[in-house]
Design a protein that fits this description.
Blueprint lengths: L4 E2 L1 H7 L5 E4 L9 H8 L6 E2 L23 H10 L8 E4 L7 H10 L5 E4 L2 H7 L25 E2 L1 H5 L5 E4 L3 H5 L16 E2 L15 H12 L7 E4 L6 H10 L6 E3 L2 H5 L11
Parallel strand pairs: 1-5, 2-3, 2-4, 4-5, 6-10, 7-8, 7-9, 9-10
Helix pairs in contact: 4-9
Length: about 280
Amino acid sequence: MYSSLISATQLHEQQTPAWVLVDCRFSLADTAAGRAAYESAHIPGAIYAHLDDDLSSAVPLTDNGRHPLPSAEQMRETFGRFGITPTTQVVVYDNLGGAIASRLWWMLRYMAHEAVAVLDGGIDHWLAAGLLTEAGTNENKTAVFTGVPHEQMLVTLDDLMADDVPLLIDSRSPGRYRGESEPIDPVAGHIPGAVNYFHANNRDENKLHRPAAQIRAQIDAVLGDVTADNATFHCGSGVTACANILATQYIGLPMPRLYVGSWSEWCRDTDLPVAQA
């Protein structure tokens, strides 16, 4: 079973028809670009998952961020439509080193599905290995997905207000964290008390994850005396923070928590404080 990362070679050599492969490519600048790229060329057998349509809820339930988390019922329906049974090995990928695909990885883990892994290096690594792609679209036979949520993995705004978060880690770029720029949300800055650990620090220039020992040293420096399962990651909208949570699993730490509403929810409330620099 693969539950954190899988290499292109491992996927190519071990994939069976029973595995479910999901292409999660997505661009905030052009929300149709990911699907178009998938239809043009994707890893054989892969289906497509859209961040807005499949991995987010149109109606805010647990949060009011830009990508609200779907309900457990919605996730069961979506994962069933993807063809995922309780024993299915799932592999997810994108073209950003897992920055988007890790959202689906986290959702499945949240819904108690352990056998899900992110393709290390994404489709770029697949192509660099000289492996084939196909065009068009795929759909899987509908399955019955029965997972139930691990509520302890999720942090809400109410939890933050109750001061129930020992360590809050902002996964955005340092510039966005410091408030030097904000290309997406209406307010620049960060949640007071949050520390910064950019999710891209986990990957090299080829979008492959760095050696586990190096990532462990980086994350340990951020955690300090706080254990990973008492830390909460967030980002702009509860997506790229999942890439940091994936990294903790890759290096063997306990599962942290996710503040899914993230900065996009926090900064919408003008009564909440904002820190900069």
